[in-house]
Design a protein that fits this description.
Layout (H helix, E strand, L loop, with lengths): L3 E6 L2 E6 H8 L4 H18 L10 E5 L4 H11 L7 E3 L18 E5 L2 E7 L6 H10 L5 H21 L6 E5 L12 E5 L2 E5 L1 H8 L4 H18 L10 E5 L4 H11 L1 H4 L2 E3 L16 E6 L2 E7 L6 H11 L5 H19 L7 E3 L1
Parallel strand pairs: 3-4, 10-11
Antiparallel strand pairs: 1-2, 3-5, 5-6, 6-7, 8-9, 10-12, 12-13, 13-14
Length: 350
């Protein structure tokens, strides 16, 4: 393992150390930071062997939704902030090994070249998944956490000692362009124009309910286009009622409109309204702007039966660690599907 990665910005090249990734992502993400560092070491050697790659020319796709890997990718490539990271748990071949959520599968594109990478068999085994599922969030008590820390250091020692070609399977794939991120949402706040991006919503809420976060973002995009065409709405004139009380949806609405803080947001999961069932309540929404009201329901089938079943198990405290991991995977996949679908195709007007 090299001691640093090198990337270029407009004004020159600079080095990023493994410890820089760890400082950004946090000490709990030791394995994620090491894996990402080694991924970039291999990809840079494959795709940009003659010179450090331009930071803004690095595009990434992955089937792994873990926060630590995403943070490390952000540190190296600024991929999250600039919308050059796509998370889609459906990506990759069957031989890409399962992770606690999603799969260990990564695609890196630099310029006109791109390659896919996934760990070779045995690198991440069943014990790894069991340890992460049970102890990554601090469970098991002091003794279990001490054992887990020792396990992590042993694993990263083995990873760092591997030759550059021994960790990942790899194959050439067609290069791709990054789809544009969802357009920013504009609102007026006390005479000031604000532009809120989906990345802002993720920074505010996190990824815990990222499917609902994406849904709330698309809901507001659609409602603003229908209720305030050609004009930027004022925050103080926006109110929302919904029969779906999900925290992701709520936080997207709050960040853009401040409706929760202003008392202009109401969620009633017991409301007798049309719309497909959610994990809780129904997917029914009313948005009002300056006295004009839009009533919407999510299209049937946008949220699958497995998503709802696992979500309800989680809310009831009955989900197993495997259930929770699968639900995380489905939430990430839902966000990808929602953000890649035009807002007008997600909702039915009532």
């Amino acid at each position: 393992m090299k001691t640093f990665l090198e990337v270029r910005e407009r004004d020159g090249a600079f080095a990023i150390r493994h410890d820089d990734l760890l400082a950004y992502a946090g000490p709990s993400q030791l394995i994620a930071c090491t894996l990402t560092f080694l991924l970039f070491e291999r990809a840079f050697a494959d795709l940009s062997p003659g010179a450090p790659p331009r930071r803004d020319d690095i595009r990434l796709r992955t089937a792994f939704p873990g926060d630590g890997v995403h943070a490390a990718m952000e540190m190296v490539a600024r991929a999250v902030t600039d919308g050059r990271l796509v998370v889609d748990t459906r990506l990759g071949p069957p031989e890409a090994p399962p992770a606690p959520a999603g799969r260990f599968y990564f695609e890196v594109a630099i310029g006109n070249a791109a390659r896919a990478y996934w760990p070779k068999p045995g690198v991440f085994d069943d014990r790894f998944i069991d340890m992460v599922v049970n102890y990554q969030d601090g469970g098991g008590g002091p003794k279990a956490q001490a054992d887990y820390l020792a396990y992590k250091h042993d694993l990263i020692g083995r990873l760092r000692s591997m030759a550059i070609g021994d960790l990942f399977e790899s194959r050439e794939i067609p290069a791709w362009t990054v789809p544009p991120p969802p357009a920013p949402i504009e609102v007026i706040d006390h005479g000031t124009l604000l532009r809120v991006t989906f990345a802002d919503c993720v920074a505010y809420h996190g990824r815990t309910s990222i499917g609902g976060l994406a849904l709330g973002y698309r809901l507001l995009q659609h409602a603003f286009a229908r209720l305030s065409p050609g004009a930027t709405p004022d925050r103080d004139e926006i109110s929302v009622f919904t029969a779906f009380p999900g925290p992701g949806l709520r936080d997207a609405l709050e960040l853009v409109t401040r409706a929760v803080t202003r008392g202009a947001y109401k969620a009633d999961p017991a409301a007798d309204v049309p719309g497909p069932a959610g994990v809780t309540g129904r997917m029914y929404f009313e948005v009002e702007i300056a006295g004009r009201r839009l009533r919407l329901a999510l299209i049937e089938g946008a949220i699958g039966e497995e998503f709802i079943r696992l979500g309800r198990k989680s809310k009831a405290g009955e989900a197993t660690p495997a259930d929770e991991a699968r639900w995380t995977e489905l939430k990430e996949a839902l966000a990808v599907a929602v953000l890649s679908t035009p807002a007008a195709d997600l909702f039915v007007e009532l």
